[in-house]
Amino acid sequence: MDKSALLALLASVERGEITPAAGAERLTNLPFEDIGHARIDHHRSLRIGLPEVIYAEGKTPGQVADIFSRMAEAGSDVLATRVSTEAVTAIQLAVPGTVHYEIARIVALRQALPLNEDEWPCIAVLCAGTSDLPIAEEAAVTAEHFGVRVLRLYDVGVAGVHRLLAVREQLVQADAVIVCAGMEGALPSVVGGLVGVPVIAVPTSVGYGASFGGVTALLGMLNSCSPNVSVVNIDNGFGAAYTATLIARAKRR
Amino acid sequence: MDKSALLALLASVERGEITPAAGAERLTNLPFEDIGHARIDHHRSLRIGLPEVIYAEGKTPGQVADIFSRMAEAGSDVLATRVSTEAVTAIQLAVPGTVHYEIARIVALRQALPLNEDEWPCIAVLCAGTSDLPIAEEAAVTAEHFGVRVLRLYDVGVAGVHRLLAVREQLVQADAVIVCAGMEGALPSVVGGLVGVPVIAVPTSVGYGASFGGVTALLGMLNSCSPNVSVVNIDNGFGAAYTATLIARAKRR
Amino acid sequence: MDKSALLALLASVERGEITPAAGAERLTNLPFEDIGHARIDHHRSLRIGLPEVIYAEGKTPGQVADIFSRMAEAGSDVLATRVSTEAVTAIQLAVPGTVHYEIARIVALRQALPLNEDEWPCIAVLCAGTSDLPIAEEAAVTAEHFGVRVLRLYDVGVAGVHRLLAVREQLVQADAVIVCAGMEGALPSVVGGLVGVPVIAVPTSVGYGASFGGVTALLGMLNSCSPNVSVVNIDNGFGAAYTATLIARAKRR
Amino acid sequence: MDKSALLALLASVERGEITPAAGAERLTNLPFEDIGHARIDHHRSLRIGLPEVIYAEGKTPGQVADIFSRMAEAGSDVLATRVSTEAVTAIQLAVPGTVHYEIARIVALRQALPLNEDEWPCIAVLCAGTSDLPIAEEAAVTAEHFGVRVLRLYDVGVAGVHRLLAVREQLVQADAVIVCAGMEGALPSVVGGLVGVPVIAVPTSVGYGASFGGVTALLGMLNSCSPNVSVVNIDNGFGAAYTATLIARAKRR
Amino acid sequence: MDKSALLALLASVERGEITPAAGAERLTNLPFEDIGHARIDHHRSLRIGLPEVIYAEGKTPGQVADIFSRMAEAGSDVLATRVSTEAVTAIQLAVPGTVHYEIARIVALRQALPLNEDEWPCIAVLCAGTSDLPIAEEAAVTAEHFGVRVLRLYDVGVAGVHRLLAVREQLVQADAVIVCAGMEGALPSVVGGLVGVPVIAVPTSVGYGASFGGVTALLGMLNSCSPNVSVVNIDNGFGAAYTATLIARAKRR
Amino acid sequence: MDKSALLALLASVERGEITPAAGAERLTNLPFEDIGHARIDHHRSLRIGLPEVIYAEGKTPGQVADIFSRMAEAGSDVLATRVSTEAVTAIQLAVPGTVHYEIARIVALRQALPLNEDEWPCIAVLCAGTSDLPIAEEAAVTAEHFGVRVLRLYDVGVAGVHRLLAVREQLVQADAVIVCAGMEGALPSVVGGLVGVPVIAVPTSVGYGASFGGVTALLGMLNSCSPNVSVVNIDNGFGAAYTATLIARAKRR
Amino acid sequence: MDKSALLALLASVERGEITPAAGAERLTNLPFEDIGHARIDHHRSLRIGLPEVIYAEGKTPGQVADIFSRMAEAGSDVLATRVSTEAVTAIQLAVPGTVHYEIARIVALRQALPLNEDEWPCIAVLCAGTSDLPIAEEAAVTAEHFGVRVLRLYDVGVAGVHRLLAVREQLVQADAVIVCAGMEGALPSVVGGLVGVPVIAVPTSVGYGASFGGVTALLGMLNSCSPNVSVVNIDNGFGAAYTATLIARAKRR
Amino acid sequence: MDKSALLALLASVERGEITPAAGAERLTNLPFEDIGHARIDHHRSLRIGLPEVIYAEGKTPGQVADIFSRMAEAGSDVLATRVSTEAVTAIQLAVPGTVHYEIARIVALRQALPLNEDEWPCIAVLCAGTSDLPIAEEAAVTAEHFGVRVLRLYDVGVAGVHRLLAVREQLVQADAVIVCAGMEGALPSVVGGLVGVPVIAVPTSVGYGASFGGVTALLGMLNSCSPNVSVVNIDNGFGAAYTATLIARAKRR
């Protein structure tokens, strides 16, 4: 409920169109009626202009499909992440026209008129090794769904730094950079030194032994000696894409 | 060394002005000669346009003053963070015209012509409690030194959420938000739900017992349920300001 | 064995009805004979007036059903938590009249005459997201079984704090509040600032990556800046309900 | 701002006494004007009826004394915890009539008319060894300041369980029990089995080697096999007293 | 190879019965030939007089059965711990006359003439709850196999300390005490205060959430305030029985 | 209060010498009156026959001296561990005839007639390096004070295993072995393979970096592949000596 | 791209054979064209002379077989580690002539003419127990594939140190030593004291309870009191063999 | 004691020159007589040919000076690491001709005739930042003392990877490479990809917040994606130099 709506309501009270008691009641409840069946993503979506998102892990296929179709009916673009095989089937049965990105474990629905792709901002998504691909693709597909052009620069780990230097020219075109890496998680520091834009580091759970399911990569990234690096949770490709999208869109507004 | 410089060098070889052997030598070494006494910050500074920075912790007062004056002589703006009392004195003796920000533990020198402040982008710096002030000020002073306007919104911790809601209107003007919090580190999640821009979360070492010197706040922030939150190291106000500056400046370019 | 029983025994010795040796023997063993087949829950149940409880995890279906029916035969109300599908079947075969709460993984038997529900004390059970439901329901069903009225306020996580503010009026009616949350575990701090009664925080194992199976939520809650928050083990909805019941019942005595 | 105030405001708008625009302004800001210079403790204090509290650690002696005297001028009771020697002196110079509890590191001021002590609720504060005394006293003095009678039962650690059994009769009179213990932190479990009221466990940083500054005691308490035990942060005697007070006061309302 | 064997060998050299070269060869290799195909348990067994033991976890059923039958052929008593169902079958097929202890996951073979049981030393094995039974039985069966009488005192956890006090008279007869407990691991401290013999504490992996698979119990036991408590690895019932046997046998020699 | 005292009390009730009410009262309180001023060490001391012990860390010099002289007046042997320089002076002023062991940080008083030293049992105390000496001496002096003969075998770390083998013959005379080691804590495993008696392992806080103040040594010892090794807390030389004394004395009874 | 290639290119520019623009283009891209399809292992392989290696874990059987056959076609020796049963089949179908080492989980292909084995350098691979065999064999097979002779000295754990001393003469022939051990990880320290060459320690995930999947062994090895010990990741037999090969080959060059 | 000495001894027994009893005695003790007063460093020094070393931390200045002068009297080169200012003075008073390396905290004495420096092998010591200098110098000075030529390549951290590439040509001349880095510890991975010799990684305790005193760097290095990296303890420059020396010397033998 924004300020103009508040003014309108109070004007109605002034004009005697609604009683003070009714006004008080509405002032308490309205903001949440307005956005309908009161879901935070919906509220955030309205305010920020990014499509609805469903985090499918820990929900039954039925629940995921229900939420997906309710959102689809409202006419918005929909994105579901961490979708199991069963949930993919359930969504596909419930909603026609969805696209399934298998490596990224994402199902998406496009309904809004797309922006002119030429005007899209651009980010780069890097990963250190091929095992990081699912997380890198979660980030890339999410960003594209949000209207961002993505440069995929994969398998550029630091043990062969010439591979990274070879893509430097592509890299510097991006408005924001996402770097996914497991094991020692050193790639964001090296990338951070090559670009002048924010780097969002995503530790992945790739590794064994003392990689502790991504904790080593996470700690390494938090201690990066490059000051333009910030970090999200282990395997959180979605969150990195969300932040990178907000950064990149700023450039074009 | 950018592409045009490379072309110029090769053209000199073509014209016989320099021998292939000399050209090979320069191609190996030149980029680092160009930026002089070979310091990464200098190199980054040239490329990105942010002033020189000295991380003073772990350096002697003499070393800090030396580096500071060498940078100052080169005409650039200079910022030194985590400066001890002794290092402040050493800098002040070596370089006239510096400003000392006591709470932020920063010494800064302004030499470049300032931008028109009206055109400055804007960020907000929040902190949960008064004990977080040194880190919040490190972030705020750094950002201001980088040419960013800062809204300081302090002591708005989640145990009294009405305090935070009271500053919501100011909050939504910012192009990026920095949130400093110790103890349970919950503030970035609540702030993330109120704004549509990136939130840089800074865990602080404020707390006792099971706060483990900021680790609890760090973990809480990494697990934020708000997707627009990314995180930097414990007490790293400088890094948060660096990234927030890069985000905010994008808006104005 | 309470004081009056002790006095009666000594009076028998005084009257010569039992010898000192027999008296000494009984003084050593009697208290545990009295409560029969010597189980702590039984003893606690007698003293405190709460029904018998079985923690089913780590027991075979047969063992769970045996204990359940032995308690049921003694006429008491019985509650079994963390019950597997197999154990549910075993109980239902052994004891008629039980109720199975599927989400809460609880099987319960009501035999005592219920108190007048109007006189029941009231607690609120909140959870941050839908994945926290099993733990929240374990708490809610347990409390109801113990004779407490429960306000269920679910999916009110801090990333959309307006959702929580919308239920504030209900919240302040409770004599004690249970808050279940995973990930960053920030909800108890915000709730603690809104109410004037004890808040029992239950970290849940919901999350991924650096949530460490609930450890991050646990640490966050222990560091809460709201002084009316105390904490139980990860996923321990039962324990939270036990303590909340003891608090709420005090109000009505 | 409660509902009646809201109705009054809207009635003023209806009567044309204030314009809609002014009403909108006040609806946004008023609740926080009401409680004055917007400090959460003040707000909580008004609502709950407990005195103002200052956590002195991490504040300068001057800051502590300033806040203390501002609160004292408002006529309320004041409690400052974790007070350094310097801060004690600063408070005593600024505010006459305070009491300094040395072991508890607390300075308190009583201004309100005391309740009739006979009507005070009662809690017990136990500790395992003499090294736990500072935390136990922080809890005990805080609770007394909040109008609660305290049974101090000290040095009753589990390695000599007969000592604890000897105080059982006193123990069962309490409306809530606080148990402070370091090292293995086993005392709350044993106490929890002896009483039918909530037990608030406070791990202390007492111990060496694998006690890890209280972490071992904390973990032990979280895993208590007594279901009436909940836990606060390491050394947080104040928080335990706050919650215990809320529990105990419920009995007498 | 003991000293007398060494003297005999050298005497043979002196008498010219064997050459110096052959003697040198045997001095290098003999000690390990003597105890056969060089297995440490065999060597230890000879020296200490305890039967052979096989730790079956991580070995294939075939390997376990092979080692078991090779030891059995040598005429010694044999004990295999942590035996899977498949390994049990493999042993039973390979060696007649073994006994399978199901809860303890042990298969044993008795071949030596038993000592007169009346002369056996005695230990007590306690456990806190029924879930600790597998570990307690691993300890009890192992000790009995080693010729020690075992008092089993189960389900005497500290949340109902009267249960423990009821068995105190039995407890004080033991020459050593083994205490198995999971969750908070508090039982050894209480037991340690009741007896004047060494207490071997075995943390078990029983528990959930912040019990961390037995780490909390382990830490609690290491910090025991009873000075007669020492600790073995999580779930190491076998090791506790080994040490307790060495202690108890000393009494009877 | 033993059984005969209980029988005597009940006989008095039978004879009418005391009333049932008075008897009930005494049955509740007497056992703890008997041991007087109710200190667990005193109680344990009476039962087990080991001298009184004071853990001085965390007590003021005055407190230590007070307790020491109260125990000395009772005629018992007294041992104070972890004694600061100030506390040593305070004890020496208060009690004549004490002995100060500087490296072991122990002050002791001998008052009882000593046993014939020839009949003393014998233990060995080993340490890996010279930095472990304070802990090894704490163990050795404590055991001697308890009437045990101590073989000191120092600086026999595993990086030069021939040093350890050279003392093997002395080692096998001991009734129990204490092994102190920091860093990787490997010594107890090697020693455990050389002897047929219990080995009490004491991790020390000696080391740097990833030794984590003794945690690495502690973990290593808990995972010892020698089954006769049990472990006490980091730097707990006293506890190791206490348990080793109980083991060794069993041999001679 | 080495220096001579660079000189040749520049000479072509000088002679006008290629334009400066084309030269600039090639200087940016050429080094990575040279090594073809741009894979780090290939690049490293060319430079160092060790065969190609595939880390199969986390790749599908199809991916593994594809990479394997592409490398085989290039004529090089190929080694695949951590190969699942399915991947073994896939490789065997795709490439004839491979050898499968089952315990080591390795598939290898030999194509190059072997060196004269008599000239091979020599390393020793030790392991503490039979459960460490898969890792020890991963190291041994890898080294042999790289042209190193391997002394396998297995089951020589420190609890029976005579077993290790018996192989000392073999041990001292090695140019480098690899030691694999789980549990307390003490073996490298003892071995380090017996040899004058580098010891590469490999912690294995063998153990239970407080072995934490190899972390205890890892920490023990990092704290080794033998200065010639360095450490690789848990279960990283391959990496140890890689480094040991580089060390051993130096001897023969 | 080697095989020929053993044969000689046995021949003496054969010839009746010594009795079997005396022979047995000598066979038990001799090996340790040979190396004199039985100190491991001395023994190792004799066998390997590296000078004596004293780890001074945790020893008193007097102890350090005593050991130093005893070694010096034996004519050997001596190296003392981690030497405090007081210990430096003590050594200088006791032994003339020593050299003090201040940054490296080392005191050294050269007595042996130096090798011809031209024949020395060569290693490189790299560090990421200037704060790593004390550890890098500990490594460099140690290696030089052991007769190794050292290339010092400092301040080449990964955030400005061009700095590292600029020294690549020097780097590839080394027979072994030591890399010291704190914070994220990424440098060894990048270096490992540039060279074909073993890389010894030394994590340093440089950093703050989530660097955890070097643990983050340690974990990063253990998870290096370069297979030629092995790791030593945090800040263990000495150990790295020891191993690197053994590697480098192999090249020249």
Automatic annotation (TrEMBL), chains A, B, C, D, E, F, G, H:
What GO annotations for molecular function exist for this entry? Answer: hydrolase activity
Q: Where is the PurE domain?
A: 121-253
Q: Which Pfam families match?
A: AIRC (PF00731)
What are the GO BP annotations of this UniProt entry? 'de novo' IMP biosynthetic process
Under the heading PANTHER family, the entry gives: PHOSPHORIBOSYLAMINOIMIDAZOLE CARBOXYLASE-RELATED, SLL1489 PROTEIN
Cross-referenced NCBIfam families = LarB (NF033503)
Q: What is this protein called?
A: PurE domain-containing protein
Annotated source species: Granulicella aggregans
High-level lineage: Bacteria, Pseudomonadati, Acidobacteriota, Terriglobia, Terriglobales
